[in-house]
Amino acid sequence: MSRAPTLLCGVTAIILAWAGAAHAQVSPTHQAATTTTAATDDGAGAYRTQRYRNLFAERLGRSPQETHAKIEQAFQRLFHGDGQEERVYFETGANANGTLAYITDWANNDARTEGMSYGMMIAVQLGKKREFDALWNWSKTTMLTTDPANPSRGYFAWSMGTDGTPRATGAAPDGEEYYAMALYFAARRWGNGKGIYDYQKEADTILRGMRHHPVVTATPPFRIHPGDQPFVEPATPWPSPNNRHAQEQAQKAGKPWPPQRPHRAPRAVTVGPMVDEAHAMVRFVPETFIPGTDPSYHLPAFYELWARWGPREDRAFWARAASVSRDFFVKTADPGTGLGPDRADFDGTPLKNWDGSPGSFSYDSWRTISNWSVDSTWWNKDPRQQALSDRVQRFLSSQGIDRFADRYTLDGKPQSDRHSTGMLAAAAVGSLAATPGQVSDDFLRALWDTPVPSGEQRYFDGMLYLMSMMHVGGEFRVIDANNK
Questions:
Q1: Which has the higher per-residue pLDDT, 128 or 251?
Q2: Helix, strand, coil shares of the chain as percentages rounded to 5?
């Protein structure tokens, strides 16, 4: 049975919750910006050695040519394959800046900053400039919030209809993070152009906004662009395959559809930076009344580069954030299973799910093992990451590598009956950090043998599949002037 995941990044829940959420004006204390560059330790990983491991070659005996061909095949299917069953990338006309294109979450019938920025990262890593520029053009044109009355001005709206109409008016930090890193890589692969294609300038702008966005309070409804109609979430769920399946399940269970939500008058919303200055952590969302962080948003491998390439006044902050995130991975991982929650407080305590149930390992959480494992292979600064990968892979292997569920309680009780390619792929990236042996090899073999995702769930599964193939195959690299 294929049960379509929601993959909300949590932000839809914020839109549903903000009207009744109690919040206060928040004036975060910003540490004094420093204009000095933090002393940097280059570690002992690929950033220093320039050696990116191809585990398919090392451990499975596949040639570099076979690996590259498999990655290229996955790219062609997901970006240029059959429009109904294979691809998620769609070109949709042009404007003064050139071609426009979006990546769609087919099962949820929208385009998300998560997927747009993933698509850009894939494109720059594989040297696909047309696709990169088209995705960035659509992002800037459609998703960037420019209405002065919206407190999220300067951020990208995390979800938009593929027709360019909003599905949300707030932002999700994982999209901003991947946008910034992809743009820095583009500047080093292709050089900077003009306007929106001055990649370095655009990346700097995003990073400055993440840390220095003003604290602004306003009352919805909001617009994305001046002149838009105010966005008001509809009373019924958006039409999509996932919501159609949810309706069918509700009807079988004798539950009402759509779920009843109490009507509340809009209340003021305060939006600030995407990072918590005191803890040096990315926030779950920049809305100040929503607490905590998302472990899968922590990207120390990227933060190390921002500590070298980003705005000079923020480099010390990002160096600190990289170290903090490494500690945070250890704090949030269950001591038995290694599984971490979708959301956690800054001290690592899992936060409850939106329905009030205990925090659990779910769709966002899939990515966390990949995040610390990429950090391990690029920088090799934290020996604890090997134990973390071993723990997760050992637990999932015990569940059956071809059948483990895609959601669990943190102590390992299955909460779904779906086995997801995207979760398998992210777990296979754990082999970059894991102890070499049968278990880590089994994950590599399972990923290699898994076909390119297709059908309704091909968006999140497909993006994670392709990026994971690139990570494990040595084709996801730090792009710099000397090694592009």
A1: 128
A2: 45, 10, 45
Q: How far is residue 410's CA from residue 338's CA, in Å, rounded to a whole number?
A: 8
List active site positions: 114, 364
pLDDT at 11 over 70: no
Which tokens is 142 given? 């459609």
Within a 10 A sphere around the Cβ of 16, how many other Cβ atoms?
15
User: What six digits make up the tokens of 317?
Assistant: 């902050």
What confidence tens digit (pLDDT) does each residue in 324-352 have?
999 999 999 999 999 999 999 999 999 99
Q: Which three-class secondary structure state does DSSP give residue 221?
A: coil
Q: Hunting for tokens 């903090």 — which residue is that? A: 324
- Residue recorded with tokens 């494992």: 373
Question: Position 10: which residue type?
Answer: G
CB 274 within 8 A of CB 171: yes
CA distances, 18 to each of 14, 284, 287, 288 (Å): 6, 14, 9, 11
Contact residues for 451 (Cβ-Cβ < 8 A; gap 6+) = none
Q: If we measure between CA atoms, which residue out of 167, 99, 157 comes closest to residue 129? A: 99
Residue 15 binned pLDDT confidence (cut-offs 50, 70, 90): very low
Supply 225's token pair. Answer: 């662009």
Give this prediction's pTM: 0.92
Q: Where are the beta strands (DSSP E) in 116-231?
A: 159-160, 216-218
Any residues with CB less than 8 A from the CB of 446 and at least 6 apart, and which?
Answer: 401, 402, 424, 428
Burial of 322 (0-12, 13-18, 19+ CB in 10 A): buried
Residue closest to 484 by CA, chosen among 188, 200, 203: 188
Task: Give CA–CA dist 475/484, Å, rounded.
Answer: 11
Query: Which of 184, 153, 185, 171 lies closest to 112 in space, CA to CA?
Result: 171
CA angle (342, 344, 345) in 5-degree steps: 165
- From 121, 94, 95, select the one nearest 103 (Cα to Cα): 121
